[in-house]
Design a protein that fits this description.
The structure is a single chain. This protein has 287 residues and is α/β, with parallel strands linked by helices. It folds into two domains: 2-225, Spore Coat Polysaccharide Biosynthesis Protein SpsA, Chain A, CATH 3.90.550; 237-282, no CATH class. Helices cover 45% and strands 22% of the residues. The chain has helices at residues 17-28, 47-54, 69-79, 98-108, 155-161, 172-184, 205-208, 212-225, 230-262, 266-282, and strands at 2-12, 35-42, 60-64, 82-87, 93-94, 113-124, 135-136, 152-154, 187-200. The radius of gyration is 23 Å and the shape is globular. The termini are far apart. GO terms for molecular function: transferase activity.
């Protein structure tokens, strides 16, 4: 393994050719000098995607029958020659210095840091930044995944965790982070200078993975992989549930307080709003 090499692993299943090319170009155009780009064709059958895959240059192209992103990540990482691994969705892309910044942070961090993730900007059907904490432990993801899949980690950590789950019934990266954090007792941290661009589109996996059943499956798989930490995960989930209930109660009290205050003036407010609406319609053209 090359001590400075970063292997960027990109599963592809019928992704749009323009998205795939932008993704690969962003990986190949990193300011870090030693980046290996591995694209795993996860059984694509769309001709436009297949043509785009065949046209790629300077990448390691692997083929497999469709088995889902977890299995595709495992295929790519198993073939990787880098000491470090960065998963990347085929419809997403990175800022040019993202790998350099993530690697510098990971190499300079203490032994408790097992991965570094970037700041995520939404693209497509959503805009803004993805909320993320500065640091994440196993307890923090007992209820929901709070880490973006595109997190830099050492290949040896993938071996320790036993690879990505290939269940196809949950978020494969949530399972991976849970097992990795559970077996190392470490944490994942954010590098605030690194930028990643996450494309949201109809039917994209980030929307699908929010389903209740898939969340339940992810939690179950993590507990099954970490039976000695099941009680700890339960207590953490219970604490987060208590915090959510307390927050809901505070919000309910706030709403009820304002409802009582506005009760006597509600008719006047509705009349004033109606009057303003009518006045806006009566404005003369050009006024």
């Amino acid at each position: 393994m090359d001590s400075q090499r970063v292997s960027v692993v990109i599963p592809c299943y019928n992704d749009a050719p323009e998205h795939l090319r932008q993704c690969v170009d962003s990986a190949a155009g990193q300011t870090h000098a030693d980046v290996e780009v591995i694209v795993v064709n996860d059984g694509s059958n769309e001709e436009s995607t297949l043509r785009a895959l065949r046209s790629l240059n300077g990448v390691v192209l692997l083929e497999q029958e469709n088995a889902g992103p977890g299995a595709a990540f495992n295929t790519g990482i198993a073939a990787a020659t880098g000491t470090y691994v960065l998963p990347l969705g085929a419809d997403d892309y990175m800022a040019p210095d993202m790998v350099e910044l993530l690697l510098s942070r990971l190499r300079g961090a203490g032994p408790d840091v097992v991965g570094v993730y970037p700041v995520v900007e939404f693209r497509g059907e959503r805009s803004g930044l993805m909320p993320a904490p500065p640091s994440v432990t196993l307890q923090d993801i007992a209820v929901r995944n709070r880490v973006v899949a595109n997190t830099l980690f050492r290949r040896s950590q993938w071996e320790l965790a036993g690879g990505y789950g290939a269940f196809n019934d949950c978020s494969e990266d949530w399972y991976f982070w849970g097992v990795l954090l559970g077996r190392t007792g470490g944490r994942l941290v954010q590098e605030p200078g690194a930028r990643f661009f996450y494309r949201v589109r109809p039917g994209s996996r980030n929307s699908v993975n929010r389903g209740v059943e898939r969340k339940e499956n992810a939690r179950r798989h993590i507990v099954e992989a970490l039976p000695d930490r099941a009680a700890e995960l339960y207590l953490s989930a219970a604490r987060q549930a208590d915090d959510a209930i307390a927050e809901a109660d505070r919000y309910r009290s706030f709403v009820e307080g304002w409802r009582r205050r506005l009760g006597p003036v509600a008719p006047a407010y509705k009349h004033g709003h109606k009057l303003l609406t009518q006045l806006s319609r009566w404005r003369r053209p050009g006024s």
